[in-house]
Amino acid sequence: MTAFDYKKEYRALYLPKDTPSVIDVPPMQYAAVRGCGNPNEEGGEYGRAIAVLYGISYTIKMSYKGSRKIDGFFEYVVPPLEGFWWMEGGAPGVDYRNKSGFNWISIIRVPDFVTEEVFSWAKEEAQRKKGIDMGPAELITVSEGRCVQCLHIGSFDEEPATVAKMDRYLEEHGYVNDFSETRRHHEIYLSDPRKVPRERMKTVIRHPVSQNSIND
Q: Where does the record place the GyrI-like small molecule binding domain (predicted)?
């Protein structure tokens, strides 16, 4: 049986075109770790968060090979790494010139069969096997609602050009960005920066939006 692949089954969410479009995003469940600071820092908080997320995600994915039996389990491909980003002090969006001021929530989607009890087990099991503190990880549900998104091809530092294209699209179609404490700049990483040249990296950029009341 072929493992369930979220990217292929939900192409509109994970594989958009490189032209902006508006989409209604359903509530989804994630393994998450919160942090702050420059994600490029060697041995820094961001790198540790990623290790935690993948440790838990693969513990759940491979659970069927061990003694742990999870109700409703099905074989699946671990979805891509994602992240919500904003600036220190709560400013919306991101300032790529000030990476040390980043705040972030790094996430990986988990199937709906992952309950709080299953997640707690996965944290303990991953910590036992990996020897990494899994304590910071939490299970969250995010409801993004209506968003604009676009595929960005290139380095992370070149993202402002794609964001500007998204902003022009919003203005032309009667929408505005609608950032808040629960609706953030969102990135979905489709490429491994360790293996893919910067100019070919693919990242989905997603922003929350609302109708422009001036046009109502």
A: 19-209
Decide which of 126, 141, 156 is a domain's last residue: 141
pTM of the complete model: 0.95
Same domain, 73 and 123: yes
49 Cβ partners below 8 Å, 6+ apart? Answer: 33, 35, 106, 136
Residue 156, domain member (yes or no): yes
Pull the structure tokens for residue 35.
Answer: 């942090």
> pLDDT per residue over 192-210, tens digit each?
988 999 999 999 999 999 9
